[in-house]
Specification:
The complex is a heterodimer of chains A (283) and B (303).
Chain A lengths: L5 H5 L29 E10 L2 E11 L4 E5 L6 H8 L7 E5 L4 E4 L11 H5 L8 H11 L15 H13 L5 E5 L7 H18 L2 E5 L3 H7 L2 E6 L2 E7 L11 H13 L8 H11 L3
Parallel strand pairs in A: 3-7, 3-8, 5-6, 6-7
Antiparallel strand pairs in A: 1-2, 1-4, 8-9
Chain B lengths: L45 H31 L9 H14 L1 H33 L1 H16 L6 H8 L3 H25 L3 H9 L4 H35 L8 H10 L3 H29 L10
Helix pairs in contact in B: 2-10, 3-4, 3-6, 3-8, 3-9, 5-6, 6-8, 8-10, 9-10
The chains are: A alpha/beta (283), B mainly alpha (303).
GO molecular function (chain A): ATP binding; ATP hydrolysis activity
InterPro entries (chain A): AAA+_ATPase, ABC_transporter-like_ATP-bd, ABC_transporter-like_CS, ABC_transporter_ATP-bind, P-loop_NTPase
Pfam families (chain A): ABC_tran
């Protein structure tokens, strides 16, 4: 299936290598892509529930401005890791260093249904010009005209974009994405993925994307890490120039390796792979 | 806040627009206010007015039918020989209003209910909030409230007379205590029913305890709190009836028991109708409140 990336042809982003030097000309209000924070550093993270260890002695680094995708089978603790990094988890063991400004987008949009869209975007923010800031962030996700709508009137894709706007308005240095596209239909998902890639290229936060979708990881991430057996088992540098065509030979090869790493036989036909994928959607 | 009727929205509006690319590539049918046209071509303003009138008539029709049945029943003697007809009740009501008795007794009763609810409603809400927001408060408060809740509080009337004397205080206390329980239960359940995912996202957005309560927990619990308020008002009126049955010479309850002594069934019915109207009015009040406070809701409103 060819991907529609004509948008990127119009505004060519600088080609990005896996170990990126400071990105030239990150526009707008984004903080300097590096220097202001040291990215993410997780050491010896362990977390269990009811005596069952989910994560054990896990280490993870994310460089400033780096886009990391975290893949793993259902129940492997992907979301647990993300929640620990985001400080949403009560008491994990280990050391976790994250930048000051962290924003999270969840699988569900989690908008407050009783507050209008722009109020949702600025939830918890202080200072003046809240509405202006909200509209600016909504403009970046193409929804400036829905600022006064109730969340209940939005479509699934729109609501998820508002959630993205709510994250963006905080100018995060670290953006945590917990399967943010999993509940969207295929077309909407493609658009949302392109949107996230574009916004990341503009603002250069570090990103940790939890996903069960191998192609999504390969389209977006600089690096894909696999979570298996309670710790990170494998790591793949996605060295494909952006924008990334799905039929790039390196893409096909990496996809194969990732699927193998996830315990799926890439030659056993698409049916198997899809079954596995949909099975993982619930993780 | 304009609620666009769901069926009239033009299908041409695409939910998803390519972000950031603007309207240039959008379909030509996507001209901005695409909600104007209706399927039938009837001008948009005439249709809702007509349908709302029909709806209004439909709402009134049930009540009219009841009154008609009452009229018919007394005329045919189905309801016994002492049941007054609607016209007799109307006449008795007019007479009571003319003499000034009605206003006097009604004001006394309204005062009693008002005083009771003035303290009872905040007390129920506060207890519910305390228990809902703080586990320690719940642990202390919940067991006694659940135990008292199981007592029919109307059975406490004699006890209250012993405690608070035969005068107004015991009546007010009885009306005060009734609404506390439904409010407590509903506020507590409303708070416990708030989606934890919303609480989590609000926390991660940097909301403190106060902000979390004000912007997430209270609005989330509000629908349930309003249900509690409705029940509380109903119980308030119910308690009034019982409280005014004994040891008083004023209030519409006294009017009723006095009429019973003299077999003035028409006056008794005036009071009964008054109770019904007061109940309907207070319910209407809560509904208005609901409509304003829950404008965001897109619940199922009936087919």
């Amino acid at each position: 299936m060819p991907r529609l990336l004509s948008k990127h042809a119009a505004v060519p982003p600088p080609p990005v290598s896996a170990d990126r030097p400071s990105a030239p000309g990150a526009p707008g209000r984004a903080p300097a892509p590096d220097g202001t924070h040291n990215g993410v550093r997780v050491r010896g993270l362990s977390r269990g529930f009811d005596g069952r260890a989910v994560l054990e002695n896990l280490d993870l680094d994310i460089a400033p401005g780096e886009f990391v995708a975290l893949l793993g089978p259902s129940g492997s603790g992907k979301s647990t890791l993300l929640r620990a990094v985001g400080g949403l988890d009560g008491d994990p063991d280990g050391r976790i260093a994250v930048p000051e400004r962290v924003a999270t987008v969840f699988q569900e949009h989690r908008l407050l249904p009783w507050e209008r869209v722009w109020k949702n975007v600025t939830l918890g923010l202080g200072g003046g010009l809240l509405r202006e800031r909200a509209v600016a962030a909504l403009g970046e996700v193409g929804l400036a005209d829905r600022a006064d709508a109730w969340p209940g009137t939005l479509s699934g894709g729109e609501a998820q974009r508002v959630a993205l706007g709510r994250a963006l308005v905080r100018t995060p240095q670290l953006l945590l994405l917990d399967e943010p596209f999993a509940a969207l239909d295929a077309l909407t998902r493609l658009k949302a993925q392109q949107l996230v890639e574009r916004l990341w290229e503009q603002h250069r936060p570090s990103v940790l994307l939890v996903t069960h979708d191998v192609e999504e990881a390969l389209l977006l991430a600089d690096r894909a890490v696999l979570l298996g057996d309670r710790t990170l088992s494998q790591e793949f540098v996605v060295d494909i120039p952006r924008p990334r065509p799905l039929d790039h030979p390196r893409f096909v090869e990496l996809r194969r390796q990732l699927l193998l790493g996830l315990g799926v036989d890439p030659d056993a036909g698409t049916a198997t792979a899809q079954n596995t994928d949909s099975g993982k959607a619930s993780s | 806040m304009s609620l666009t009727p769901p069926s009239t929205a033009a299908p041409a509006v695409t939910a998803e627009r390519p972000a950031g690319t603007g309207q240039a590539v959008g379909s030509p049918a996507e001209s901005p206010p695409a909600g104007k046209a209706t399927k039938t071509g009837v001008p948009r303003t005439a249709l809702p007015r007509l349908s709302s009138l029909l709806r209004y008539l439909r709402r009134v029709s049930g009540l009219v039918a009841v009154v008609l049945l009452w009229w018919l029943g007394t005329g045919q003697g189905w309801l016994g020989s002492t049941t007054p007809s609607p016209s007799a009740v109307w006449n008795a009501g007019v007479e009571l209003v003319r003499s000034g008795d009605y206003a006097h007794h009604l004001l006394v009763s309204l005062g009693r209910v008002g005083k009771g609810l003035l303290f009872g409603i905040p007390l129920g809400i506060l207890l519910g909030l305390g228990a809902g927001l703080t586990k320690a408060v719940e642990d202390v408060v919940d067991a006694p409230i659940q135990a008292f809740r199981m007592l029919p509080h109307l059975a406490l009337a004699p006890v209250f007379i012993i405690w608070f004397g035969i005068g107004e205080t015991s009546k007010t206390m009885l009306i005060l205590i009734g609404p506390v329980f439904p409010l407590y239960i509903n506020v507590l359940h409303g708070i416990r029913g708030v989606d934890n995912k919303l609480v989590e996202v609000a926390r991660s957005c940097g909301l403190g305890r106060w902000g979390l309560t004000r912007r997430v927990i209270l609005p989330g619990a509000l629908p349930q709190i309003l249900v509690g308020l409705r029940q509380a008002l109903g119980i308030g009126w119910l308690t009034l009836v019982v409280a005014e049955q004994t040891a008083t010479t004023s209030g519409i309850g006294y009017l009723m028991s006095d009429a019973r002594e003299f077999l003035r069934t028409d006056v008794m019915f005036v009071v009964l109708v008054t109770y019904a109207l007061l109940g309907v009015l207070s319910d209407l009040l809560v509904r208005l409140l609901e409509r304003r406070a829950l404008a965001w809701r897109r619940g199922f409103a009936g087919a």
